[in-house]
Amino acid sequence: MGTPTIASRPASVVSVPCRPGTGDDAARGRGNIHSMPCLTETSDLAMVGGAQFSVCRTYRYHLWRQWDESRPTLAIILLNPSTADQRRNDPTITRCLARAIKAGFGRLEVVNLDPLSATDPNELFEHPDPLGPPALANAAIADMVERASMTICAWGAHRAAATRASEVLRMLGAAARNPRLYHLGLNRDDSPKHPLYVAAATGPEQFARSEQ
User: Fold this and answer.
1) 74 near 110, Cβ under 8 Å?
2) pTM for the full model?
3) Chain centroid to CA 204: how far?
4) Does residue 156 come out as left (phi exceeding 0), alpha (psi in the -120 to 50 range) or beta?
5) Which of 29, 40, 78, 79 is 20 to 30 A removed from 142 (C-alpha atoms)?
6) DSSP class of 64
7) Radius of gyration, alpha carbons of the chain
8) Residue 212 within a domain
């Protein structure tokens, strides 16, 4: 099976605050990831695509593709979103999707350390708030890991990842205590390699890094 582009059809608007301090849930420090409407698209090849964005589309909290609901879910945690949405795949999502299909999964879910949509990761340093409401970003990650049969950590070695990666690993109970966390190889700084820089034949290994 290939990696089809998701065909267009009408979709609902996601009502999520664009910045911290906007909206009742953000003001109370709560994430409302469970009640967020989703943008969804269905292709002619029965590939369902979905995404959750802030109203202003500055932040993408969650993206998924499903082609066989009878099979398990592969989840991948990346650094930050690029251009993929409920309809379009970018190069990273295309690579992740091909890996999930080849490995026998029926659904791919993707979240990010920072939900700021940017084609250049250096924008994480330039933007005043790349994380957005922390409760929303953290809930998206925690919920996805809970649902998935396997979660691959793959945010790469970019210096913007270090602090946030430690926060996320602590939130998830640290990799050494979560047998569903994996990587596709480690960089020199022990960060998990990004899928675009790993051979397709590379298999996942348990992520044994422990954050205290």
Assistant:
1) no
2) 0.82
3) 17
4) left
5) 40
6) E
7) 16
8) no
66 and 106 Cβ atoms separated by less than 8 Å: yes
Instruction: Quote the domain boundaries for residue 175.
Output: 24-206
Strands (E), 143-209: 150-153, 181-183, 205-206
Tracing tokens 């005043």 back to the chain, one arrives at 128
Which DSSP category does 41 fall into?
A: E
H or E segment and range at residue 171? helix 162-171
Burial degree of 28 (CB within 10 A; 0-12, 13-18, 19+):
exposed
| Residue 163: C-alpha distances to residues 42, 158, 166 (Å) | 37, 11, 5
What confidence tens digit (pLDDT) does each residue in 7-61 have? Answer: 433 333 344 555 544 433 433 334 555 555 555 555 545 799 999 999 999 999 9
In a domain, 17, yes or no: no
139 touches 33 (CB < 8 A): yes
Per the CB < 8 A criterion, the answer to whether 3 and 101 are in contact is yes
- The verdict on residue 72 lying in a domain is yes
Label residue 173 by pLDDT band (50, 70, 90). Answer: confident
Tokens of 10: 């009408």
Q: If residue 76 lies in a helix (H) or strand (E), which one and from where to where?
A: strand 73-78
The verdict on residue 109 lying in a domain is yes
What is 78-147 written as a DSSP string? ESS--S--SS---HHHHHHHHHHHHTT-SEEEEEESS-B--SSTTHHHHSS-SS-SHHHHHHHHHHHHHH
Overall domain count for the chain: 1
Residue 183 β-bridge partners = 205
Exposed, middle or buried: residue 199 (CB in 10 Å: 0-12, 13-18, 19+)?
Answer: exposed
